[in-house]
Amino acid sequence: MAKVGYVRVSSVDQNTERQLDGVKLDKVFTDKVSGATTDRPQLIAMLDYVREGDCIVVHSIDRLARSLVDLLALVQELNAKGVHVHFHKEKLEFTGDDNPTQHLMLSMMGAVAQFERSMIKERQKEGIAKAKEAGVYKGRVKTVDDDAIRAMVASGVSYRKAAEELKVSLSTVQRAMKAA
């Protein structure tokens, strides 16, 4: 039986030290992406790695998922494989046993994590609106200017290839070309 840790922080510059501090683990998977997305490379790697009898240790429920639907699906998928999920901070373990109390606790704690995420997004939206009113908010700084995009497309490169090479989205290339 392996004890596997999953650590997630929302951005690259955040520190992972406080999560799972002092917990003895056989292997740790760490993602530095938003919990709002299920596109997390290390989460996917961990799901492939764990086997029946293993125990996944996560600092807290909101580190595994910010959506109740995603949380329930992940825990259910892991339990179906015979993998236990332990949330260190909440001192809760989900084993897959047909336990009504476990189901209730997971649903309640997952709903709190989802609510917390919704409140963060709402406050962010309010802050951006106020900043725009004050003329302070100008949006995200462009990583590639429109002239560079236009030059690449003018040299015969397709929109899709230009987006890939400049590491921007296809819609960014399309907007730059439309503005020309």
Which superfamily, in CATH terms, is the homologous superfamily of the largest domain?
A: Resolvase, N-terminal catalytic domain
Oligomer: single chain
How many helical stretches?
7
- Spans of at least 5 consecutive residues whose pLDDT stays below 50 are none
- Share of β-strand residues: 5-15%
Decide which structural class fits the backbone. alpha/beta
Instruction: Please write the string of helix (H) and strand (E) elements.
Output: EEHEHHEEHHHH
Rg over CA atoms: 21 Å
Rounded mean pLDDT is 87
The rough form would be described as elongated
Helix content: 40-55%
CATH architecture heading of the largest domain: 3-Layer(aba) Sandwich
Major β-sheet annotation: 5 strands, mixed
CATH class of the largest domain: Alpha Beta
The fold-level CATH name of the largest domain is: Rossmann fold
Q: Distance between the terminal alpha carbons, to the nearest Å?
A: 60 Å
Supply the number of structural domains. Answer: 2
- Secondary structure tally: strands: 5
Strand order of the largest sheet: 2-1-3-4-5
